[in-house]
Amino acid sequence: MNMIRVTKQAVATALAKASKSYTIAGPVKARAGHEFRCLGQGQTLTKELDLEYTHTRLSPKALLFPQAEPMFHFKLPETTGEPGDTPPAFLEAESFGESPLAVVGLRPWDARALDLLKLNFDTPDYTDPFFMKRYNAMVRVGLADIHPDPENFSLAAGSGPFDEAGLDILLADAGDAFIGKVITGKGRDFAGAAGFEPGSPADEKAFAALKAAAEKEADIPPACDRINDADTLDLYHADFWEAAAFSCINCGACTFACPTCWCFDIQDEVNQGKGVRLRLWDSCMTDLYSAHASGHNPRQEGYQRFRNRFMHKLKYFPDKYGAGIMCVGCGRCITQCPGGIDIREVMAAMNTAGATVQQEVSP
Ligand code: SF4
Ligand code: SF4
Q: What pLDDT shows up at residue 92?
């Protein structure tokens, strides 16, 4: 194990040093709760950064996949009949110049979620240049959650408060210092640039104790063991969907807050002959999302869109990618839903339906 430590007093100096080679992003206190932002340099940087945060309202996915992203600009044909610009296939993403982006204070499940997003943006058939440029340039400095929120079920979702899978460094708050591990070569480079000190065997022990305590606190298993083996159409036609969706108003808040939701649409905005093609977050919870040009909508009813969201996360995605569920258990959709919808309850209903179907077909 490659242990490191940095006292809380020394964090400002360490990040100021690292900011000579990296753009630094991290959690800052904003008007409506904490959110991830790219930070300034020197004093400004550490004044904004708040590593004592509990959770962020929106996930850090916007650092790779912005809410609104210009893909290219164009000019409409002139009135003279001359053709306008030919749109390029894509415009190189202009995000944060040439320096790599170090995201400090990422929760481990949010880091894993970035890798689940990648499954959609980097496939054998297509690579999204906007997403992948940022993905490759990102260094992820995680901060373990030593007291997970009650709505957080990340451990049961295949991640956890000390999950290392999507991180280059994992730090934990040990009182007067952050102690942690370097996980990858990218992490080693960042630790070197920041001048983190080597950790001691006592730090290693303290880190393991913090991990065991946090995982015990987070150990709330929603049952989803039967969903995998259940027949897709049986789950789709199960009779609980309308009742489960009763209080859902299809506002889409859950999808915008979710670190693993990736729906987007593409729109052209034109003003005085000049235009920009934008990629914008979208939500499968809205009726327009699935409306066809003919006017037909295969998910006309709210409960059908509700069903699609959960079937995608808990059945279609695991079946397609074999990478677990499309949910890291962050709990944002639970705390932010105005209708009181709890994904753990939907999961339990799907699991029960899966179990019932299996019993019916068993000899
Ligand atoms: S589940 Fe909740 S947050 Fe999501 S669309 Fe329905 S009401 Fe909105
Ligand atoms: S589905 Fe809900 S709990 Fe799961 S990752 Fe998305 S917001 Fe978090």
A: 44
How many CA atoms lie within 13 Å of 168's alpha carbon, on the beta-carbon side?
21
- Ligand 1 atom having least distance to the Cα of 285: 5
State which H helix or E strand residue 145 sits in: none
Q: What is the distance between the alpha carbons of residues 258 and 252, in angstroms, rounded to a whole number?
A: 10
Q: Give, in degrees to the nearest 5, the angle at Cα 123 between 118 and 129.
A: 70
Tokens of 268: 């052209």
pLDDT tens-digit series, residues 150-193: 999 999 999 999 999 999 999 999 999 999 999 999 999 999 99
Ligand 2 pocket check for 257: Cβ under 6 Å = yes
In a 3-state reduction of DSSP, which class is residue 70? strand
Q: Give the tens place of pLDDT for each residue, 8-31.
A: 999 999 999 999 999 999 999 988
Residue 357 has pLDDT above 70, yes or no: no
Calculate what percentage of the chain has a pLDDT beyond 90: 75
Does residue 244 register a pLDDT over 90?
yes
Decide: 15 and 194 in contact? Cβ < 8 Å. yes
Residue 200 burial (CB count, 10 A): 12
3-state secondary structure of 94: coil
pLDDT surpasses 50 at 363: no
Rounded to an integer, the average pLDDT of 290-313 is 95
Is 49 near ligand 2, meaning CB less than 6 Å away? Answer: no
How many CB atoms within 10 Å of residue 244? 19
Going from the Cα of 337 to the center of ligand 1, the distance in angstroms, rounded, reads 5
List Cβ neighbours of 351 (8 Å cut-off, separation of 6 or more). Answer: 223, 224, 225, 226, 227
How far the first Cα of the chain sits from its last, in Å, is: 51
* Cβ of residue 105 lying under 6 Å from some atom of ligand 2: no
81 against 238, higher pLDDT: 238
117 lines ligand 2 (CB under 6 A): no
Q: Is 259 near ligand 2, meaning CB less than 6 Å away?
A: yes
Q: For residue 206, report the distance from its CA to the centre of ligand 2, in Å.
A: 30
